[in-house]
Design goal:
With 344 residues, the chain is an alpha+beta fold. The chain has a single domain, classed as Jelly Rolls, CATH 2.60.120.330. The protein is 23% helix and 22% strand. It has seven helices and 16 strands. Helix 1 crosses helix 4 and helix 2 crosses helix 4. It binds N-oxalylglycine and nickel (II) ion. One of its GO terms (molecular function) is metal ion binding.
Length: 344
């Protein structure tokens, strides 16, 4: 049976590739030049230390992105979580539109991303996003959408698992930096700012004219992303201008470093640009779980990583300052952490 055409939560007609979504030629993705020969590492969390720590550390230094397998989060839970998120975006538009807002301070929101071209007109991205807070140990079900019916329960269970996984990843990364296990988590502060962002990319008739998400670095500290099993879309910039595709690996998560760990590690671990492109025939879903400091946390290069040979690359700041700079650069190819760089 043919499914009803997709309508954005804030759209009154079925989604079509109108001028609102078409990027000017110089910012379109050049899909033919995306490298297929380079891939990011796949790291098996069952590997023994110290090689596990070494592999993670090298991936963080070189790519800022890697896959993890044998991560311990039950496959069945992952599958059901993806299904629930797909179901959310298939709710009738009026059931999503009451959550639609452009106010980024709203904890629960449905929104669209856009790119400001030449700092002027906005081009809307070919996607819709559902964002909300998550907590690993506190009950947050009441903050979540009521529909689809199982979402509250599933998202709570998933968050608990991701909470443990992130704790483990931060510990491995700390050790990779030569620090004691708890150091990164400690420096990221108590009451971290935890946000879940689910992205839905409907099939797009001409993927070369649009983007699903513009090129960006993640502003928080650490991201664990689950993506559709058999649809490509996520791409990472490895050198200036060269893009590679992060194709799905079965039962894996994509892990990437955000800006705050780049700063805390004094530039050793990389927060790199990435984007999502659309697919002509298939819809794609991803769920990004973000871990970041709260707005009062002071972030700066960790003292043990700074010495005469490695002078601090960034000044310290309250995370709220970073967020303000982030919002100031809304819609552009942001350069947020650069605003906190120290001259060398
Ligand atoms: C993000 C992101 C990529 C994707 O949500 O920050 O980079 O593949 N998502 O959806
Ligand atoms: Ni991202």
């Amino acid at each position: 049976m043919e499914r009803a055409p997709f309508c954005l939560a804030n759209g009154s007609t079925p989604l079509s590739l109108s001028d609102d979504f078409i990027l000017p030629a110089h910012v379109r993705p050049v899909l033919s030049s995306v490298s297929t020969s380079i891939t990011v590492p796949v790291i098996d969390l069952n590997d023994k230390q110290p090689s596990l720590i070494k592999n993670i550390s090298e991936a963080c230094e070189e790519y800022g992105f890697f896959h993890i397998i044998n991560h311990g989060v039950p496959e069945e839970l992952c599958r059901r979580m993806m299904a629930a998120i797909s179901d959310f975006f298939k709710l009738p538009p009026q059931e999503r539109s009451h959550l639609f807002t452009e106010d980024k301070t709203k904890p629960l929101r449905v929104s669209n991303y856009y790119l400001k071209v030449e700092g002027q007109y906005k081009v809307t991205m070919w996607s819709e996003t559902l964002a909300h807070p998550w907590y690993a140990f506190d009950d947050f079900a009441h903050l979540l959408p009521r529909n689809p019916p199982h979402y509250r329960e599933l998202a709570s269970e998933y968050a608990k698992e991701i909470g443990w996984l992130m704790r483990r990843l931060l510990s491995l990364m700390s050790q990779g930096l030569g620090l004691k296990k708890d150091r990164l988590r400690e420096r990221l502060g108590h009451k971290p700012r935890l946000v879940s962002q689910a992205n839905y990319y409907p099939p797009c008739p001409q993927p070369e004219l649009t983007l699903g998400l513009p090129a960006h670095t993640d502003l928080n500290a650490l991201t664990v992303l689950m993506q559709s099993e058999d649809v490509t879309g996520l791409q990472v910039m490895i050198k200036d201008g060269e893009w590679i595709s992060i194709d799905p690996v079965p039962n894996a998560f994509v892990v990437n470093i955000g800006d705050q760990i780049q700063v805390l590690s004094n530039g050793r671990y990389k927060s790199v640009h990435h984007r999502a492109v659309t697919n002509k025939d298939l819809e794609r879903v991803s769920i990004a779980m973000f871990y970041g400091p709260n707005k009062d946390t002071v972030v700066g290069p960790i003292e043990e990583l700074v010495d005469e040979e490695h002078p601090p690359m960034y000044r310290s700041y309250r995370y709220e300052e970073f967020l303000e700079e982030f919002h100031r650069q809304e819609g552009t190819r942001r350069r947020v952490k650069e605003a906190f760089e120290l001259p060398n």
